[in-house]
Amino acid sequence: MRVFVTGLGGYLGRAIAAAAGPDDVVSGTVRESPAPPGTDAFALDVRDQAALAAALDAARPDAVIHTAYVQHGDDMRAVNAGGAAAVARAAADRGLRLVHLSSDAIFGGDRGRALREDDPPDPMTPYGATKAEAETGVAAAHPAAVLVRTSLIYGGAEPSNHERRALDPDLTFYADEIRCPVVAGDLAAAVLELAARPELSGALHVAGADAVSRLEFARLVCAANGRDPARVRAGAHPPGRPGDCTLDCSKAAGLLRTRLRGVREVLGRR
Known about the structure:
The protein is of the alpha/beta class. The chain contains 9 helices and 13 strands. Helix 1 (11-19) crosses helix 6 (184-195), helix 2 packs across helix 3 and helix 3 (76-93) runs parallel beside helix 4.
């Protein structure tokens, strides 16, 4: 399979390149971070429709995996929503398979149960709002795309931002903010599997098997790195942040060969 990954130099992009098979050809877009070895990189902004089209024509992929995003800044909406729509249009114009990476941040986390694919988005943060808008734009431009909603990504070749924060003794972690952390390699394998499954489309929750608080996640990271988990400071999440964003991943579990491990299983073995 020939795969084109936007955000190829990012945390998940690098994990996708590492998870690709020996006969797969991986290319994609980069901005500031270098591309993984053995891949073909195109330095461009995903909002640049002409440059994106030229890159896809040069790479000739079978599938596009859209991971590029920004989490803060004045251009967050333009990149996350506008860039996603541009990628979707470019992929649809060429008849290419599209896997779009979304987030549990599209939910407010106040339903009192695990969130299903048919639950309407109700984001509480500006970032979540841009990711919800991105889903709408992608679905309109490329109805056959898969919208992969995932959670905190960790366990890649280097510590993720989430892991680095967990090791910061000056931060407080929320006991009532629930997420489903997923190992980068597991998510990458699942995304590549979806790229090769054209019969699947629409929203799909793909995250780790364990729903844990930010506090428990931080303590698991500390213990796995030889730190004392008891030193992690606990607190309640402030207003304006999502609460329980547990994703119901039973649909993905029934469709995918890839097993999505829980964080307790993964970090407990380190």
